[in-house]
Amino acid sequence: MNSDLLPAGFFDIIPALMPRFARVLEECELTIAEGFALSCVKHSDKQLDGRPVALLSDLTHTLVTVIGYEETGGGAATVLTKLFDRGLLERGRLTVLQKQTLFGQSGGTKAVVILRQEGVKKLDEFKTKFNSALILLMSQVPTGKYLSRAVSILARRAIKSLPPAFLNSIHSLPPSEPLKE
What's the sign of the alpha-carbon dihedral 137, 141, 146, 152? Predict the structure, then answer.
């Protein structure tokens, strides 16, 4: 396996991005765990009636593993309950045939989590706001000394993908905190 899949400099930007990532999630009224859960369902390769779907047990296990909740502590269940209550996710139950077709197995739990349109909109809101924060961050970081080639490439790609009207609008945003050396 190639140990240089990502340039080492790529990881230099993560400490600068994480506080902004958390701040944007907060602006979108999501916790990190809620944003992660919505994203997991959205990026599932399974669809039920044209909507992304994941097994409830798999999503709960992922939250426990990645976010660090206790297996029996109820943290993952609390996150999902909040998303259900806010109408961002929907509970569902598969038939044996649906589970076999979608997940290749018919046994076990048939409880699923379905991403609602409101959840898709919330993720799109986050993506738009985070892209703005990223572009603003990249515009404030001096190139060369602090910005690695990999991050520079990512910033250029992000900027090229945005419409000119959007780029003009971010100049009116308040500046973020300066980076610490």
Answer: positive
